[in-house]
C-alpha cells in the first residue's frame, strides 16, 4: 500500500513539475508577442538618451511625435536606425535648423509618418524620394519650406494615397510639371523660383492653391 501511495505521489509531483514548465513556456511565448522597446513595456518612445538630440513625445493612445530640430543629418540617421521604434508614428518635424543638409535614402529606417514638416531647414538641399515614399500609405501632410532644395520629384505625389496637403515654399525649385493626385486638397507653393508651369494637372479635389509670388 505504501508503495502505491509513493507511486501516486511521485506521479503527482511529476505533473506539477510539468505543469510549471508548460506554464513558463506559455508565459514566455506570450511575452515574446509584446512589443518591448528598449526595456520599456509597449512604450513607443525610446529612451531619450538613445535618440538625442532628437526628442519623442507620446500622447496616448496614438499620437507619437519626433522633433529633430537640434539634430544634424547623421544624428537623425542614428536616431532612427540604431534604435527600436514602433513603425507607425504621427509627426516628424525639424524647425529652423542649419545643420541638416540632406535627408538620404533610409534616413528613417522602417518608420513611417502621417505628417512631415521641414520648416526653416535653411541648408537642406536634398530629400531622397524614398524618404517620402516610405510613408506613401500614411502621409497626410508634407511641408518643406525655406531651404536650398532646387529639385522636387513631383511624380511621387500620385503615389501618396493619403496626402491631403503639400507645401513647398521659399526654395530654389524652378519647375512645376504636370502631376496627378486624386486626393490632394491643398497645395502651397509661394516663394519658389518656378519659371516653368505645365498645364494638364489631374487634381480634382484641390480646394486651396497658393502659388504666391
UniProtKB/TrEMBL annotation:
The keyword Signal applies. InterPro entries: LRR_dom_sf. Keywords: Signal. SUPFAM superfamilies: L domain-like (SSF52058). Residues 1-39 form the signal peptide. It comes from the Eukaryota. This is Uncharacterized protein.
Amino acid at each position: 500500500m505504501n508503495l502505491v501511495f509513493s507511486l501516486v505521489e511521485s506521479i503527482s509531483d511529476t505533473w506539477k513539475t510539468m505543469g510549471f514548465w508548460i506554464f513558463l513556456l506559455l508565459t514566455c511565448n506570450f511575452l515574446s508577442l509584446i512589443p518591448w522597446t528598449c526595456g520599456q513595456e509597449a512604450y513607443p518612445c525610446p529612451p531619450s538618451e538613445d535618440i538625442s538630440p532628437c526628442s519623442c513625445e507620446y500622447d496616448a493612445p496614438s499620437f507619437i511625435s519626433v522633433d529633430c530640430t537640434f539634430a544634424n543629418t547623421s544624428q537623425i540617421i542614428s536616431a532612427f536606425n540604431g534604435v527600436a521604434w514602433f513603425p507607425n508614428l504621427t509627426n516628424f518635424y525639424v524647425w529652423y535648423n542649419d545643420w541638416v543638409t540632406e535627408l538620404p535614402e533610409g534616413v528613417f529606417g522602417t518608420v513611417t509618418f502621417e505628417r512631415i514638416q521641414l520648416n526653416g531647414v535653411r541648408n537642406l538641399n536634398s530629400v531622397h524620394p524614398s524618404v517620402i515614399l516610405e510613408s506613401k500609405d500614411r502621409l497626410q501632410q508634407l511641408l518643406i519650406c525655406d531651404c536650398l532644395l532646387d529639385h522636387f520629384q513631383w511624380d511621387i505625389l500620385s503615389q501618396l494615397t493619403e496626402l491631403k496637403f503639400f507645401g513647398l515654399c521659399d526654395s530654389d525649385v524652378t519647375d512645376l510639371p504636370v502631376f496627378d493626385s486624386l486626393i490632394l486638397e491643398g497645395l502651397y507653393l509661394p516663394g519658389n523660383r518656378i519659371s516653368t508651369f505645365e498645364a494638364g494637372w489631374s487634381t480634382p479635389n484641390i480646394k486651396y492653391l497658393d502659388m504666391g509670388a
